[in-house]
Amino acid sequence: MSTVTMIIAVVLVVVILGIILGLVFSRRGNTKQLRDRFGTEYDHTVQAMGSEKKAQTELKERQKHVKTLELRPLSPSERERYLADWSAVQSKFVDEPGKAIVDADRLIMEVMQLRAYPVADFDQRAADVSVSYPALVSNYRAARAIALKNEQHKADTEELRQALIYYRSLFEELLEIKPGVAKEKLK
Fold this sequence. Notes:
Oligomer: single chain
Distance between the termini: 81 Å
């Protein structure tokens, strides 16, 4: 083998190794970016999809989908109206916890619809919520599961209380309440 052929072979091996390492590090970076962005929702999606590659594709598709939505903030008057509605839901919880959960679930959907989230399908709502509020989507799913259990009259008061707490955390985010501003109305 000539020296030139040997040099070409070494350069080819180095280039191929560089490409392989570049792809590996790129994928690791992509995984880290998605894991950092979605938190526990990343793990939930991996488990639900059955593979990390499928989960990453799903999460990227969710992000693309939410970018196509023309989400809008609530006006100050809309925000005040929904804060008042939320106060009524929380007050109702004392005497009618099951009805309060039904109203909380309905209120979440109303606010989402007003902000231009598609609301027809719960799984799609949860997927959309996971993009904007990844730390809250597992609570939203849990609250919805309790709400469904409540429809069958099988949820106890503690579960209903927990659902209301879960709904409240998402409600605060959907209303885009700034820390210290009007939060006392949510208590």
